Amino acid sequence: MLPPLAIAKGVPRNTDVLVVGMSETGVREVPEPVARAFSKRFGVSVGEMATSLGTKASADSKRTLPAAGDGPRIVVVGLESEEPSAEDLRRAAGAGVRHAAGLPGSDNLSVTVSLGSADSDQLAAVAEGALLGSYDYEPISAEPAKGGTVDAITVIHSGDVKGADIATAATTVAQAVVTVRELVNIPANLLYPESFADQVRSLVRGSKITIDVLDEMALSEGGYGGLMAVGGGSFRPPRLVRLSYSPRGARFHLVLVGKGITFDTGGLNLKPGEGMYTMKCDMAGAATVLIAAHAIAELGLKIRVTAYGALAENMPSGSAFRPSDVLTIYGGKTVENGNSDAEGRLVMADALARSNDDHPDLVVDVATLTGACVVALGERTTGLMVTDDATADLVLAAADAAGEDVWQLPIPKEIRSKLDSKVADLRSVTGERWAGALVAAAFLREFVAEGTPWAHLDIAGPAFCDGKPYGYVASGGTGVGVRTLIALARSLAA
Predict the structure, then answer these.
(1) What residues are annotated to the active site?
(2) Other CB atoms closer than 10 Å to residue 492's CB: what's the count?
């Protein structure tokens, strides 16, 4: 659970740590009572002491200053720019709160963040960043949790804004991101298709969302050949989760589809051991779309949303599907399997084909789909592939509003012919090394109804942080894509 968030004009009396920012011209937005007490106690200003300790304006700069009497300790974080963007503020707030939680004697902290948030967009960004920075995955252990905890967050504002509304919305968005992080971080022996579906069912119970879960019998009877093949090697059978949110007055229908491979061994095309360790995160796409749909409903956005989570565990066994098998996807199109480690596109094909029955205005899919996208764009940037420029503009604008890095890649015309098969309608892979992310997108596009706008987000790089935390991003699952989907829904609802 996230700590409670308040929006206020001044520093609460019980504040333990105050987070402020430093730009190229010095420390800014130190609340006047704190600044006055600090100067009286130490004979220098907060900015002068921070500068003497080597604090920089760069994003990775963090310094802790002592408390003045019974006042709060002060954490000074870099703001990057003299006129920081909403994302700069979001990252600074997250880094500051995380740093505060790591200070000695930091149990049950009350943290106040003052970064000069004058308008509602900036204030929302600071609030989101502060909440996300407070998250830390709690290990599964017989020992009690160690380390600092943040029990309350206050964000100071200097403008005329509706603080309560901003706090509620920021908490809803941040809680959605954190929920995805938690799901991604759960070990695969504890999160598998059935338990994943059960967790989603519990989450949406009592909300304005309806849920349908197809088990292996329903999937077999319904002709979901991709899910049945990929999940066939595991004793934990596949599931297809469908969420539906239809508020009165909604005029636009957005469909979200997510890849939910709860663990990916590569199947009979077995991955090397070092490439398998983090594969519990291969369900991040399904978590992203399902939890984003729930958040959209919680925010009360006037847009119809249908979300699909295609859940399976890809394991090698006597019942596993084979290279050269021909699979019949929902709706009848056949696929020759070229590589059992290219399984995500097969379960996605079933869900995308099923989504055509919903007659959507826009389909967006999210998947940790290809290592090739990580090679192309690195570990912090999502790849975007689309049917048309207008759809690209919509998604890129939403990503920019959310502060998430997304880069558009093409789907070259010549790739489709490389997927031709002699024994089926198409192959799942080309058999070549080149353009793996683009090939996967070209394959998925075959299962979207002609004329339906579609966007594919490959989050293979940014879905999991295998290194140290940065900004508001924790180690492990990141929850990337959730804020972009919510921002997209906001824009379409408007």
Answers:
(1) 271, 345
(2) 21
Q: Are 311 and 238 in contact (CB under 8 A)?
A: yes
In whole angstroms, how far apart are CA 13 and each of 5, 10, 112? 15, 9, 10
For the chain, the domains span: 5-159, 180-493
Q: How far is CA 449 from CA 61, 254, 390, 444, in A?
A: 49, 14, 17, 11
Lookup: tokens for 246: 């239809």
Give the C-alpha distances (Å, rounded to integers) separating 194 from 139, 197, 203, 213, 259.
Answer: 23, 5, 14, 9, 15
Calculate the CA 299 to chain-centre distance.
Answer: 17
pTM, two decimal places: 0.97
432, 418 in Cβ contact below 8 A? yes
Give the pLDDT confidence of 242-256 residue by residue, as tens digits: 999 999 999 999 999
What's the CA gap between 471 and 59, in Å, rounded?
Answer: 8
Nearest to 37 by CA among 4, 56, 6, 15: 15
Biggest CA–CA distance in the chain, Å, is: 82
In this chain, the answer to whether the domains covering 5-159 and 180-493 adopt an identical fold is no
> For 123-180, what is each residue's pLDDT tens digit?
999 999 999 999 998 889 888 766 678 999 999 987 777 778 999 999 999 999 999 9
Number of helices (H) and strands (E), helices first, in the chain? 16, 20
Token readout for 260 is 């939910």
Q: Where does 5-159 sit in CATH, by number?
A: 3.40.220.10
DSSP string, 71-105: S-EEEEEE-SSSS--HHHHHHHHHHHHHHHHTSTT
Give strand pairing partners of 152: 110
pLDDT in tens, 18-51: 999 999 888 988 999 999 999 999 999 999 999 9
- Under a CB-based contact definition with an 8 Å cutoff, are residues 294 and 243 in contact? yes
Q: How many angstroms separate the Cα of 250 from the Cα of each of 245, 305, 318, 347, 488? A: 10, 9, 48, 29, 15
Bridge partner list, 111: 17, 153
Q: According to CATH, what is the number of the domain 180-493?
A: 3.40.630.10
Cβ pair 435, 441 in contact under 8 A: no
List the structure tokens of 171.
Answer: 């908490």
